[in-house]
Design goal:
Its cofactor is FAD. It is an enzyme of class 1 (oxidoreductase). Keywords: Auxin biosynthesis, FAD, Flavoprotein, Monooxygenase, NADP, Oxidoreductase. This protein is of the alpha/beta class. It folds into two domains: 183 residues, FAD/NAD(P)-binding domain, CATH 3.50.50; 174 residues, 3-Layer(bba) Sandwich (FAD/NAD(P)-binding domain), CATH 3.50.50.60. The strands form five sheets. Strands 1, 2, 3, 4, 5 and 18 form a six-stranded mixed β-sheet that branches. The protein has a five-stranded parallel β-sheet with strand order 7-16-8-9-12. A three-stranded antiparallel β-sheet has the order 13-14-15, with no helix packed on it. α5 packs antiparallel against α6. The longest helix has 16 residues. The chain is globular and about 60 Å long. The two termini are 20 Å apart. It binds flavin-adenine dinucleotide (FAD). Flavin-adenine dinucleotide binds next to α1, α2 and β3.
C-alpha cells in the first residue's frame, strides 16, 4: 500500500473548512470541507473496521475510519438484545493482535465482547471519525484513487484514498419481509429484532415472533421467560444444535472433511434433540456445516427454546396466510389474535447503494463477487472485510 504524504500518522483527522484547527468544531452549517487524501479509507467501525485500522496502524499505514453512529461496534452496543451471548466460542470471535483472556468465558456475554472491543480501539489507537455517514465512493480510474463523500455532523466532507475498505457488515439494514400480507393492517405493536432489548414490556401479551434463526429462537425464549405468551413462525428447515456441538464441529473442521464432521454433529443433535418434526421443526437433508456453506443458513443454537417448545410454553406455527387487524391466519388453518409482532427476519447489506463502483467488488445484491476464500479482494484497490 502506498502511503499518503498529506498525512502525518495513522487515523489523522481531516482539517475541514470550518475547523479553526479543531477538526470537530464548526461555525457554519452546510459547508463543505477541503478535499483530503489518505492512503486507506475504511467505512464502518464494527469489529471488522477497527481490526483493519489496528493492523494498518501497526504497519504505520495512514488510514481513516468513518462510522455513521456515535460509537464503535454499534451493532453490539445499540442493535442487539440484552441477553445476547456470542453464538461462537471466544476463539472464533477475537480480533487480530489481541486474543481473549483465559479468564473470559468461552461463550461471552455481549457486554464482555463490547468491553473487549472498547479496549481494542484504545490499545491500538484506532480513532474512528464518528457521526459520519459515507454517502458515496467512486473510483477515479484516471487518477487511480477512490473519491469518498461523507455527511458529517454539520457539513459534507470529501476525501480521496488509494485504497478503500468496505467494513459495513452484512447487517446494515433490517429486512421487513414483503410476503406478509396485511402487515400494515396490524393494530398491535410491530418491532424488528434490532430494536428489541428484553421482554419486560411484553408480560402477559400474545407475541408472534416471525423468523426462526438464532435471534428469533432466542427472543422467543426471552419473551417466555418474561411472562409473555410467545408464538414462533417456523416455515423453513433448520438444524438445531447446542453451542457445544457447534464448537466441537468447528474444531473438527480443521482436521476432517465437512461430510464426516456433519455426520458426527448430526448424530449428536439427533441423540440430544430426537425427532422434532411433530413440533414443526424439520432438519434439512444436508448436514449443518454443508447446509451453511450451500445456503448461508446457520444452524440454530438452542439456549432453552426447544424445551419450551416441547412443553408448549412457546407455540409453533407454520407460514402466515394473512394478517388482518390483530388476527393472524396460518397456512394450517389456525387463526390467533396477537398484541405484538416481532420481526426476527434478518438484515441485508446495502453497501452497493453507496459504493457506486460496486462492480469491482460486489454483485447487484451487495454480496461479494468472489467466492470464499477470495471474496475479500476486489479490483482497483477496493477490499471488503467481514
Ligand atoms: C444477534 C446477532 C448475534 C451475532 N452473534 C455473533 C457471534 O456470536 N459471533 C460472531 O462472530 N458474529 C456474530 N454475529 C455477526 C456479527 O454481525 C459480527 O460478529 C460482527 O458484528 C460483524 O462485524 P462487522 O464489523 O463486519 O459489521 P458490523 O458490526 O455490522 O459493523 C458495521 C459498521 O458499519 C457502519 N456503517 C454501515 N454503513 C455505513 C456507512 N454508509 N457509513 C458509515 N458507517 C456505516 C455501521 O453503523 C456499523 O457500525 C451476530 C450478529 C447478530 C445480529
Amino acid at each position: 500500500m502506498s502511503s499518503s504524504s498529506s498525512l502525518h500518522g495513522p487515523n489523522t483527522a481531516p482539517m475541514s473548512a470550518s475547523s479553526n484547527g479543531n477538526p470537530n468544531s464548526s461555525e457554519n452549517n452546510d459547508i463543505v470541507s477541503d478535499h483530503h487524501h489518505v492512503s486507506v479509507v475504511i467505512v464502518g467501525a464494527g469489529p471488522s473496521g477497527i481490526a483493519t485500522s489496528a493492523l494498518l496502524n501497526s504497519h504505520s499505514v495512514p488510514n481513516l475510519v468513518f462510522e455513521r453512529e456515535d460509537c464503535c461496534a454499534s451493532l453490539w452496543k445499540k442493535r442487539s438484545y440484552d441477553r445476547l451471548n456470542l453464538h461462537l466460542a471466544k476463539g472464533y470471535c477475537s480480533l487480530p493482535l489481541m486474543p481473549h483472556s483465559f479468564r473470559t468465558s468461552t461463550f461471552m456475554s455481549k457486554y464482555d465482547f463490547i468491553a473487549y472491543l472498547d479496549e481494542y480501539v484504545s490499545r491500538f489507537n484506532v480513532k474512528p471519525r464518528y457521526c459520519r455517514h459515507v454517502d458515496s465512493a467512486v473510483c477515479d480510474e484516471d487518477e487511480e484513487i477512490w473519491k469518498v463523500k461523507v455527511t458529517g455532523p454539520d457539513q459534507y466532507e470529501y476525501y480521496s484514498s488509494d485504497f478503500l475498505v468496505v467494513a459495513t457488515g452484512e447487517n446494515n439494514q433490517a429486512i421487513i419481509p414483503a410476503d406478509l400480507p396485511g402487515l400494515e393492517s396490524f393494530t398491535g405493536k410491530v418491532v424488528h429484532a434490532c430494536d428489541y432489548k428484553n421482554g419486560e414490556s411484553f408480560k402477559d401479551k400474545q407475541v408472534l415472533v416471525i423468523g426462526c434463526g438464532n435471534s428469533g429462537m432466542e427472543i422467543s425464549n426471552d419473551l417466555a421467560d418474561n411472562g409473555a405468551h410467545a408464538s414462533l413462525v417456523i416455515r423453513s428447515q433448520m438444524h438445531v444444535l447446542s453451542k457445544e456441538m457447534v464448537a466441537i464441529g468447528m474444531l473438527l473442521l480443521d482436521y476432517l472433511p465437512v461430510k464426516i464432521v456433519d455426520k458426527f454433529v448430526s448424530f449428536l443433535a439427533k441423540f440430544r434433540y430426537q425427532d422434532l418434526s411433530s413440533y414443526g421443526i424439520h432438519r434439512p437433508d444436508q448436514g449443518p456445516f454443508l447446509f451453511k456453506a450451500l445456503t448461508g443458513k446457520r444452524p440454530v443454537i438452542d439456549r432453552g427454546t426447544i424445551n419450551k417448545i416441547r412443553s408448549k410454553q412457546i407455540k409453533v406455527f407454520p407460514g402466515i396466510v394473512r394478517i388482518n387487524s390483530n388476527s393472524v391466519e396460518f397456512n394450517n388453518g389456525a387463526r390467533q389474535s396477537f398484541d405484538a409482532i416481532l420481526l426476527a427476519t434478518g438484515y441485508k447489506s446495502v453497501a452497493h447503494k453507496w459504493l457506486k463502483d460496486y462492480k469491482y467488488l460486489l454483485n447487484d445484491d451487495g454480496k461479494p463477487k468472489g467466492n470464499y476464500p477470495n471474496h475479500w479482494k476486489g479490483e482497483k484497490g477496493v477490499y471488503c472485510v467481514a
